[in-house]
């Protein structure tokens, strides 16, 4: 990487892209393994507070993303970078907490019935799919911004932002709907 311009070489770009795909596969495998009861680690109720933390982190991610959009539309690139970096950091902390919680706690089932159950399941399923699809997109978009590849960053962000924002907003909604059943 050229420290003066922030641009990376084509070779470094290829390495980063490969790294993103490897990380994506590892994260998806890890998330898939969380559902296996034989891998559950018993820590009692020590991490029972984490679902609230997840909702708070996701809400802060949504706020950071909204601020990032407003700041870039106003031409404030420095603030945009700080906001997207904050969203990345918060999302990373969320992912670590989420994995820790689900490796140590039994999955909570939604107890609602009728129409509210359908709403919950719709939100949950679309949240999960959007999270899985957006994960590599977020990393590629962030890399393009970090590498000062502005055209690529803009092109990717048009698709990445709505998905990432949707995930950040629907996560806390799902938590609030599931909260009575914890």
Could you tell me the radius of gyration in angstroms? 18 Å
Provide the β-strand percentage band: under 5%
Q: Which H/E pattern describes the elements?
A: HHHHH
CATH architecture: Up-down Bundle
Amount of helix: over 70%
Instruction: Output the CATH class name.
Output: Mainly Alpha
Sketch the major β-sheet: none
Report, as a whole number of angstroms, the end-to-end distance: 47 Å
Q: How would you describe the overall organization of this protein?
A:
There is one protein chain. The chain is globular and about 50 Å long. The chain is mainly α. It has a single domain, classed as Four Helix Bundle (Hemerythrin (Met), subunit A) (Up-down Bundle), CATH 1.20.120. The N terminus is likely disordered. It contains five helices and no strands.
Fill in the keyword field for this structure.
182 residues, mainly alpha, Four Helix Bundle (Hemerythrin (Met), subunit A), 5 helices, 75% helix, 0% strand, disordered N terminus
SSE blueprint:
Layout: H1 10-33, H2 50-73, H3 77-104, H4 115-146, H5 150-178
Short synopsis of the structure:
The protein has 182 residues and is mainly α. The protein has five helices and no strands.
């Amino acid at each position: 990487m050229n420290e003066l311009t922030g641009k990376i070489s084509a070779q470094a770009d290829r390495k980063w892209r490969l790294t993103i795909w490897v990380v994506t596969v590892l994260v998806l495998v890890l998330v898939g393994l969380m559902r296996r009861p034989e891998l559950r680690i018993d820590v009692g109720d020590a991490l029972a507070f984490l679902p609230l933390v997840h909702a708070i982190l996701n809400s802060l991610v949504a706020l950071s993303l909204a601020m990032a959009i407003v700041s870039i539309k106003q031409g404030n690139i420095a603030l945009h970078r700080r906001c997207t970096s904050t969203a990345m950091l918060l999302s990373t902390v969320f992912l670590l907490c989420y994995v820790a919680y689900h490796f140590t706690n039994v999955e909570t089932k939604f107890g609602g019935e009728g129409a509210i159950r359908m709403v919950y399941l719709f939100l949950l399923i679309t949240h999960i799919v959007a999270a899985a699809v957006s994960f590599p997109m977020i990393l590629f978009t962030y890399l393009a911004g970090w590498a000062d590849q502005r055209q690529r960053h803009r092109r990717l962000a048009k698709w990445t932002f709505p998905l990432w924002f949707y995930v950040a907003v629907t996560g806390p909604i799902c938590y609030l709907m599931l909260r009575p059943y914890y």
